[in-house]
Design a protein that fits this description.
- This protein has 329 residues and is an alpha+beta fold.
- Helices cover 29% and strands 32% of the residues.
- It contains twelve helices and 17 strands.
- Helix 1 packs across helix 3.
């Protein structure tokens, strides 16, 4: 971690490109670490406010870190009420130079319970689900003779009837074994019906991806009905349904074998997938780096090794912070 000068907020031995976004981001990271140290003083608070007010880029870099606070330390909200820490939160009022940390810390308890920052703890919806898996956990459910469900990481399911479930979030592979009536899977704004099929359903970021691995699956969305045969995949959300495409079953079901495989995928997609399998959060703070196409395969049980692989393959700078937070830039 880079050293900070508590008198003026400057990092010692700043390089010539100290005003670049990357350099400012590194300074923000160092300020964050300094703020959490036990010997943080009012002079440090004044220096931090001055650093944030230097330019909109400085304020923006600090604002990005505001989403880390609540996830890193449950005691943070309590510390915000103390006089010394409260002074730190009083940033300059000009909009272009405002650090948004104060607003984040003032968020209501109800909002945090419904949507925990960075998935730091289970939401109320998760706790109320009939079945749920934690980060990195997989689970198999034999709901009836005709319906078996394999749940992937961070998945929530409600059972509505013997052969009808709702996938609230996450990913599952469903096996329908010749049911007299089709098994039913409600996922987002659509419903899936199958009598004899094996299919993968992924419900993340308000979108649903359905892949038929064997047999046939009917996708019902509003008044539309489309049948997927083995090897076909379809994505829908509340706004519409995309055209069906071909999909490699081995890649879609790779998680069933304990591995993740990516061939020519943007690094941003790889990082998003890694976040589903490890505690904490990996934050990719370099959009150009996120667009790079990579080819990777790694074991789910050694997910942190994938981060070292990304660092070695791309030359990215990796900063590890408390709470399982990792910054890539």
């Amino acid at each position: 971690m880079m050293l900070m000068n508590s008198e003026d907020g400057d990092r010692r031995d700043l390089p010539d490109n100290a005003d670049s976004d990357a350099a400012i981001g590194r300074q923000a990271d160092a300020w964050w670490a300094r703020l959490r140290s036990a010997d943080f003083t009012r002079a440090d608070a004044d220096a931090l406010r001055a650093w944030c007010a230097r330019s909109p880029a400085h304020a923006r870099a600090w604002g990005e870190l505001q989403r880390l606070w609540q996830a890193l330390d449950p005691a943070l909200a309590r510390s915000a009420a103390t006089p010394q820490r409260a002074a730190v939160l009083a940033f300059p009022s000009r909009p272009a130079r405002r650090a948004f940390l104060g607003g984040a810390l003032a968020a209501g308890v109800a909002a945090l319970a419904l949507r925990p920052p960075l998935g730091a703890w289970p939401s109320l919806q998760e706790l109320r689900a009939d079945y749920r898996t934690g980060t990195g956990e997989q689970r198999q459910l034999a709901l009836s003779r005709q319906m078996t469900v394999q749940m992937n990481t961070q998945t929530r399911i409600n059972v509505n009837a013997q052969e009808a479930i709702e996938l609230l979030a996450g990913e599952a592979e469903i096996l329908a074994s010749g049911a007299r009536l089709p098994v039913s899977v409600q996922a987002g704004s659509g419903r899936l019906l199958a009598q004899s099929a094996r299919f993968n359903v992924r419900h993340t970021d308000d979108a649903v991806c359905v892949t038929c691995l064997a047999g046939a699956v009917d996708v019902l969305w509003q008044n539309r009905r489309q049948t997927l045969d083995a090897g076909q995949q379809l994505v829908y959300d509340a706004q519409g349904v995309q055209a069906a495409t071909s999909a490699a079953a081995s890649e879609v079901s790779a998680w069933r074998t304990g591995a993740l495989s990516f061939a020519g995928k943007p690094l941003a997609d790889v990082v998003a997938e890694i976040n589903r399998y490890r505690p904490g959060k990996v934050l990719l703070r370099n959009p150009e780096l996120g667009r790079r196409l990579v080819r990777m395969r790694f074991s789910i049980s050694q997910i942190d090794g994938a981060l070292a692989m990304i660092r070695d393959l791309t030359g990215a700078q990796m900063t590890s912070l408390p709470g399982g937070i990792v910054l890539l830039r």
